[in-house]
Design a protein that fits this description.
13% strand, alpha+beta, 226 residues, two-stranded antiparallel sheet, disordered N terminus, six-stranded mixed sheet
Length: 226
């Protein structure tokens, strides 16, 4: 009888602790203003353009408990068909930004693109608060689509760096960053969170298989712009 009562007491305490922790976790998720998508649309770099990419961020932001915010994908586009380029850095609001567990990422746009930002493997969490697989993991998913230069600006028109402005799942290339800040070499591009290397592969560079072949999965950085 004593053992049963003790077991029941321990179970009750564990349940009470879980109930107390749940509101805190929900509060942190509601305050989340940055995440890496846990999954992509599944069509490689064909995101449905910026509008489709933003919709993916909004959907997952809502699933993560922060749907009241306006979410924007950190993506640039190149000037084409009479339309001007769009800079990723101009799409994401003013900051500050924090992840699903409350860790600060950057205080503003300049900080985000400077050496002092806090975007690392441990802080570049998904909307679920989970670490994204990086170099050394199976599968590696650290390639995040950005189509951007290191300062967050768009590439000049010409060579495709955005898989035809996020509408191609075959031919083209998309510049990616490394969410874990690691690569094959000990150099700045390998450590860059937003501008490491272009995608490539046997399907032409923009398919889901191509993205996976170099360590990606069609994932995005999402920022709350308000």
């Amino acid at each position: 009888m004593i053992r049963i009562e003790r077991s029941a007491t321990i179970t009750g305490l564990a349940l009470a602790a879980a109930l107390l922790a749940a509101p805190s976790a929900r509060a942190q998720s509601a305050d989340m203003t940055f995440f890496v998508t846990s999954n992509g649309p599944g069509r490689g770099a064909d995101l449905g353009g910026l509008e489709g990419a933003d919709a993916q961020c909004q959907k997952l932001g809502q699933a993560g408990g922060a749907g009241s915010k306006t979410w924007r994908a950190y993506l640039s586009t190149q000037a084409a068909d009479g339309k001007p380029a769009v800079n990723a850095r101009d799409r994401i609001g003013k900051g500050p930004w924090q992840n699903a567990k409350g860790a600060a990422i950057a205080k503003d746009v300049a900080d985000l693109h400077g050496a002092a930002n806090n975007l690392t493997r441990q802080t570049a969490l998904s909307e679920k608060g989970e670490v994204i697989n990086g170099r050394g993991d199976t599968p590696n998913r650290h390639d995040i689509l950005t189509g951007s230069q290191a300062d967050g600006s768009a590439f000049p028109a010409g060579d495709d760096k955005t898989c035809k402005n996020w509408t191609s799942s075959t031919q083209g290339a998309a510049v990616v960053g490394h969410a874990d800040r690691q690569g094959l070499r000990d150099d700045e591009p390998s450590k860059s969170w937003n501008s490491s290397h272009p995608s490539r592969g046997p399907d032409g560079g923009c398919s889901q298989a191509d993205l996976k072949s170099t360590g990606g999965d069609g994932l995005l950085y999402c920022f709350a712009s308000n």
